[in-house]
Amino acid sequence: VAGAGLDVYAKEPCTDSPLFELDQVVATPHLGASTHEAQEKAGTQVARSVKLALAGEFVPDAVNVQGGVVAEDVKPGLPLAEKLGRVFTALAGEVATKLDIEVRGEIAAQDVRVIELAALKGIFADVIEEQVTYVNAPLLAKDRGMNVELVTSSESPDWRNVVTVRGVLADGRHVSVSGTLSGPRQITKIVEVNGYEMEIEPTAHLSFFTYTDRPGIVGVVGRLLGEHGINIASMQVARSVKGGKALIALTVDTAIPADVVDQIVAEIGAESGRSVDLED
């Protein structure tokens, strides 16, 4: 145990204990939960917090978490932000030097620092072997020299709320991915990738291919995936202008192996091809 804070003792008031001599221990008087009922409720809350921590979820009353108390309408945005972070890492292929976590819409009026933590948690989830948590995610960013900024705005012209993870890579390239929670069922949707607008659910397996818009590309992608027994669940094509740069975004039932991604890139002359697996 690296450190502990104590405010409940077997005998109270406690005026002397060998624990007081330890540098790792901070002892304070027992100020609350003195009755049996109060202690039972406090113990239940501690157990719930420990369960959340062991599951890698956000613990709002943890003393070493920066996010603070989470408003009810902010909580659904945490899994969204984490998925966006994982998609961002897959698209970037490396750790960004500068990162903006943008929160726009009605929830921007709340304390949304925890959404920043969730996005960072997702960004590093597939980068390091150790477990990434809401506690160590900011430290991982700091250790890698990543400049992280939280940007909020009440303005969101297209969606009630939208979260964007936007970054700059070492070579100057810009990468972005945006998502929202849509409709009464709060369905998670990716609504933008690198400036291309779309609406696609981030299921377990996704892939993105950037290429020059021309006829026949969708057929080639479908044929190659079919030859490898990979079923397409959904596909969208977004483009800037006719005959210009375009993006194929697709979800599939099983992960696309790296060599198949490379084969698709080669056959359609793609500028880039990225695959991301969100399945835990």
UniProtKB/TrEMBL annotation:
<keyword id="KW-0560">Oxidoreductase</keyword>
<dbReference type="Pfam" id="PF01842">
    <property type="entry name" value="ACT"/>
</dbReference>
<dbReference type="InterPro" id="IPR006140">
    <property type="entry name" value="D-isomer_DH_NAD-bd"/>
</dbReference>
<dbReference type="InterPro" id="IPR036291">
    <property type="entry name" value="NAD(P)-bd_dom_sf"/>
</dbReference>
<dbReference type="InterPro" id="IPR045865">
    <property type="entry name" value="ACT-like_dom_sf"/>
</dbReference>
<feature type="domain" description="ACT">
    <location>
        <begin position="206"/>
        <end position="280"/>
    </location>
</feature>
<dbReference type="InterPro" id="IPR045626">
    <property type="entry name" value="PGDH_ASB_dom"/>
</dbReference>
<dbReference type="InterPro" id="IPR050857">
    <property type="entry name" value="D-2-hydroxyacid_DH"/>
</dbReference>
<dbReference type="GO" id="GO:0016491">
    <property type="term" value="F:oxidoreductase activity"/>
</dbReference>
<dbReference type="InterPro" id="IPR002912">
    <property type="entry name" value="ACT_dom"/>
</dbReference>
<comment type="similarity">
    <text>Belongs to the D-isomer specific 2-hydroxyacid dehydrogenase family.</text>
</comment>
<dbReference type="InterPro" id="IPR029009">
    <property type="entry name" value="ASB_dom_sf"/>
</dbReference>
<dbReference type="Pfam" id="PF19304">
    <property type="entry name" value="PGDH_inter"/>
</dbReference>
<keyword id="KW-0520">NAD</keyword>
<comment type="pathway">
    <text>Amino-acid biosynthesis.</text>
</comment>
<dbReference type="GO" id="GO:0051287">
    <property type="term" value="F:NAD binding"/>
</dbReference>
<dbReference type="Pfam" id="PF02826">
    <property type="entry name" value="2-Hacid_dh_C"/>
</dbReference>
<protein>
    <submittedName>
        <fullName>ACT domain-containing protein</fullName>
    </submittedName>
</protein>
